[in-house]
Amino acid sequence: MKKEFFSLFGLATLSATLLIGCAEQPGNPTASSGKPDSTYLASTEPTGAQPVGDARESSQDKQEVVLVGRIGGSSKPFIDGLAAFTIVDPKVPYCSEDEGCPTPWDYCCEQNQVKENIATVKVINSEGKPVSQDARELLGVKELNMVVVHGTAQRDDDGNLSVLADQIYVKE
User: Fold this and answer.
1) Fewer beta carbons within 10 Å, N or C terminal of the chain?
2) Which candidate, 172, 160, 170, places its Cα nearest to that of 56?
3) What pTM value is reported for the model?
């Protein structure tokens, strides 16, 4: 049941990425409103990080993984009520404001590249359950932050990749 929920979550996120254009959503990156929780923040960058696209090709279900990516992939990459968000491979260029895109983190200019270069990150507690706090508050992150994520790969039947993350390192 949990696997099905997260698989559907990944598909819904990817679908939203493909259906929502950048011109439809006004706004700026959301800033963190609370103090980050050091329980889930790594103080040093984990070694051996793979870009999201490479990890999508090579990682197996339940394998330990370290990924690097930029928070984004849709106009709303954060999941309300959960410490969960999507990340996109750093090689995929995000849209720029000078192109007339008010939400560059939705990658509307590069949607075809996003499909194979996106992963869902779900922060889990020590019991393996999703943390029910907004990731922006929990981790002090916002759209387009580059992060390194350590956790366990979770694959669905469609090849979508999620990471059950126990540590996040914020690069910027």
Assistant:
1) N
2) 160
3) 0.79
